[in-house]
Structure of Aspartate/methionine/tyrosine aminotransferase:
Amino acid sequence: MNPIYAAMRATVFEEMSALARARGAINLGQGFPDGDGPADVRQEAARALIEGPNQYPPMMGLPALREAVARHYAEHQGLTLTSDQVLVTSGATEALAAAILAIVSPGDEVLIIEPAYDAYRPLIERAGGMVRTLTLSPPDWRIEVEAVDAAFARPPKAVIFNDPLNPAGRAFTHAEVALLAAACRRIGTIAICDEVWEHVRFDGRNHYPLIAEPGMAELAIKIGSAGKIFSMTGWKVGFVMAAPDLLEPIARAHQFLTFTTPPALQTAVAYGLGKPMRWFEEMRAGYQHSRDLLASLLADQGFVTLASDATYFLCVDLPASGFADDDRAFCLRAVEQAGVAAIPVSAFYGGESERRIVRLCFAKRDEVLVEAVRRLATLR
Ligand code: PMP
Ligand code: GLN
């Protein structure tokens, strides 16, 4: 293999979606809803596209969107960010890349929490950074004091904290967030907070942004994604929020990645972020229904699932469900023999990895979930 590609494996999402397309399978792999997002937000994008302007918007983002983001997080999370602390990016993926390019220099150690979203490691490594890991264990995926102490014994330059956690569906408690904040404060470790799933949480759970913890306003970089907020994963509008001294180098990196994001989408996201709280509650209730349906359909067929507090994902414990395959072998068998695509959770680990868990996306219509479980049951 060309050594340039060694750090950049093909993503499991593209691999599994390609298999799903080739086999005509139901795709419960890559996380995307089978609806098409709120009609009024799409209408606003269409209006803005026709009326314009369609030339380069400001590099930092449209003022209307930067203001809408600041207002949105004041309303939903009590944050007191001003619009000049907001940078608009082309999705959270670009936000992550810009933050990592801005912060990580060759030789810097960056802590990631495994299972970790698959973009983190390759971006850190291509920036010349060294990845260190703190590993969480199923079924609870809890952040424990001892593990944090061990991970920060030699403090890293930065930590990437994904809360709620993809693929585990874990929404961390305030105590866990505070524990991590205390560790960051010890020597000023920068926290890159990937909070793209912040709104998709269940059973009345709260979201505790790390940036709101004492002393973290100057150390945390908060990343959000309109794709997740509005169930339109193809939209690729993201936001970065940070204190001016942290945001500045990230904006510099953003200049050389995409420079801007399509203005019509920015206008529509600015509109959507002002939706009433009720809209967000209904969105959560809809996905909670889908989570509960998938969990009960799977339980009826003898599958054992882990708890899912948040995200679009529910994890299946293969050995507890009576399967001897490892996660990857199960996913290949599921797509080829049963016509259902899923994601092996081992793809979220670098080295020695968890191989017993498979992630299913439940952001689908009821009848799709019913048919998918009927098919998965044939794998026994
Ligand atoms: N971070 C996490 C944890 C994600 O799950 C995703 C996408 N599902 C992203 C980042 C990327 O978000 P975007 O599509 O806005 O680039
Ligand atoms: N974040 C999505 C997921 O976890 C996938 C995004 C992608 O395809 N890179 O399923």
